[in-house]
Fold this protein.
Amino acid sequence: MTVQISLKAARVNAQMTIEQACKAIGIGKDTLIKWEKNSGLVNPIFQKKISEAYKMPVDCIFFG
């Protein structure tokens, strides 16, 4: 079983601010804040972009 961390924890581990993460992913600040509160809203295309921006495998981030 793979250990999964929250979307916010993944961003913090990547040492990125919300603004830096939004720029890297290509989304607005409000969207990322909403996703960090409810990661189940993130579609697979953005899951991949987040994974790449945070340099972390998709299956290590909780998108539930």
Remarks:
- The first helix runs from residue 7 to 13.
